[in-house]
């Protein structure tokens, strides 16, 4: 599970409802985001979420390479975005 984003997508039972519920999990410990647990995104890449600073620090070595790659992609998108 380390280094992966886990997204649980659930559709409502009601056929009339087009709303889907997305649930994210901490990349460090795997705990799901619920009402009393709010996950924070990685500030550099927005790819993973963490429930605590401890989980973020513990997961950093596994996440570092992918984080730098995605952060560079995001910077390039901003720098080279064509005006409309």
Give the overall shape, derived from the CA principal axes: flat
Helix-strand makeup class: alpha+beta
Helix tally equals 1
Low-confidence stretches: 14-19
From the N-terminal CA to the C-terminal CA, the straight-line distance is: 40 Å
Walk me through the structure.
The protein has one helix at 53-79; strands spanning 7-11, 20-24, 40-41, 49-50. It has 84 residues and is an alpha+beta fold. It has a two-stranded antiparallel ribbon. Strands 3-4 form a two-stranded antiparallel sheet. The radius of gyration is 16 Å and the shape is flat.
Keywords summarizing the entry:
two-stranded antiparallel sheet, flat, 1 helix, 84 residues, alpha+beta
Ordered list of secondary-structure elements with their pairings:
Layout lengths: L6 E5 L8 E5 L15 E2 L7 E2 L2 H27 L5
Antiparallel strand pairs: 1-2, 3-4
In short:
The chain is 32% helix and 17% strand. By secondary structure, it is an alpha+beta fold.
